Model the fold of this input.
Amino acid sequence: MNVSKMLPLLAAGIVALQFTSDAQTIKIASACPLSGAQAALGEMVKLGAQLAVEEAQSAFAAHGIKLELTPQDDQASPDVGVAVAKRMVNDAEILGVVGHFNSGVAIPASEVYKDYDLCMVSPANTNPKVTERRYPNINRVCGRDDVQGPVGAEFAVTELKAKRVLVINDKTAYGQGVAEAFKQKAAGLGATVVGFVGTEEKANFQSLILQMKVHKPDFVYFGGIYDQGGLLLKQMREKSIPAVFMGPDGMDSSEFVRIAQNAALGAYYTTVAGPVDQYPAAAEFAKSFEAKFTKKPESFALYAYDSANVLIAALKELTLQNPGQTPARVDVCKAVRKISFPGITGLIEFNDKGDRKKADYYIVQLKESAYPGTTVKVISAGPPGN
Amino acid sequence: MTLRPLRPAERPRPLGEALLQILPGVIIEGLLLGCVYAMIALGYSMVYGVLGLINFAHSEVFMIGAIAGAEVFRYGQPAAPNTFVLLAAAILVGGSVAGLVAVGIERLAYRPLRRRTSNRLVPLITAIGVSFFLQDLVRLIEGLWHNEFYLNYPSCTPIEHPVKLPLGTEVQVKAIIVIAVAMLMMIGLTLLVKRTRMGKAIRAVAHDAQTASLMGVNPDQVISRTFLLGGFLGGVAGVLFGIMFTQVNPFVGFVPGLKAFTAAVLGGIGSIPGAMVGGLVLGMIETVGGTYLPLFTNGAVGSEYTDILAFAVLVLLLLVRPQGLMGKASSDRA
Done:
């Protein structure tokens, strides 16, 4: 008997084994960068999900179900993310994904999940396209860039009285998208947009700064990530450009302060993930997080915790309805979409696209040259068109 | 009621006047960037002169100088008596480490190949490989050592102090330092190559290595020293780059390296004054274009398109003068 004839037999044997094993196992996956430059941010997603899963394990064990977290590393790369997604959809025990961290990874990976009805709840993807495709299995618990940009613009124009606004972006889908949204809203509110500039420069922002000396903006918005934003701000201040600086959640990192150093003082950023102290219910979460992992929860840990809990709540409901049976992936997607779950970050309900009905947007100022900054305003807003 | 005449500061300023007013600033920034390009370009040009090899690993030599300088600031800042001593130490250490790395690259990667093959393509591919290897090696070392990807040059108030120039321009002390150091280095190199025995040997090997060796010059030693000199200049350029732009990382060498290589070709590769002129011209085009293109086109052509301008100049120049600005038209090098 040759090997090729044996393969179907083997496969059948494995399937049979899976169905006959006594202890039923359900896995929730976390998908985020665990190596590379963004590993520190990705680890928070993993640990947040891990805490939620470990807290729920005993409740599931009472029904004879073993609940597990399987952490996956997407390396913040679209290619790796898709490969990880393909591996996960073929593991029948995985019924939900918490992730990805980067919109650029989540969008292609979710194309894979869609074909296998695997439910994804994202703690951190802000690109509008993630949910605009209206896939029934893709959801997010955080806000969107096309709301984040305008929220920042409204604060800049109405509260900070910005008159001459210079908008800069990093020419990525994320940075340009959020910068466009900012520009439109700011212009609509009556501010003069003195320039809309794209830059891929990583070190030398002198040309941009010399242009500022001509345009004399009183407000500079940078749509992009902290590595460019922090340096731009530092060089602006060295050349004594006094304009107020603001950026999106790409600036929401302790690295931003480390790079900009004392220039970070007074800068604003908007973010979709508020600091842990913004949530009254989060104190206990922070305590058990620190006790378990001996580090403080940062940025998206709380949102990953809520994302995992949304999946857990849906799974609980389904296993109670049909005890002893593994829920079908399609049913998990449906249950998540119509859930009404009181998370730590507020009530979590999804609209028909998978956007959260009401998401919070934070305007944060670095009142000292230290991370995280002080929340100066919280705006609760729904997705556009709702 | 009499109207008080407006003081100059209150008068609305037409755009044209503002354009003119930033011109001295633009020229200084162009000069700064040009100096950095010129110093890196020298490394490319000198190595090409003696070996006929485009040493693409040179951009990583520059990066290693920049990183070494950042480490000097990290460990030296608490101990140093004053900022200028620290600055001098960073420049010396950055240059020396980079110079030694350049010699090491030549010894370990290029020399064995030179013995085994006369194919020009093999060392070129090796150079690209060495470049990738060094990027990730430095990333690994910095990752294990400090768990950091971005390294900062810390703020030092004395060198960031603005100095008033005539015409109402301001420059920082560090800009003056960078230009002065770069000029000194380039003058020093010119003297070294023109006036010393070592310089004579380098010129001899560049002209004809075989005949030079018949005259008692050891080509291997001369090549080593060329790498040391080029690497030192590249490393110093790295530290100056870090001081100006305040942040470096293991991949920071790629773009300036490529620009400097372009500058070397623009000036005439193999020519030392050509590399300097090429660097200055390229830095100037980039800064002037990057600043004024968006202003004159009202934002339609953004700063990010400056490279088109820079490379258009390069292509046009090479059409007219294939040997570059200061290169000699050579028929003997096939």
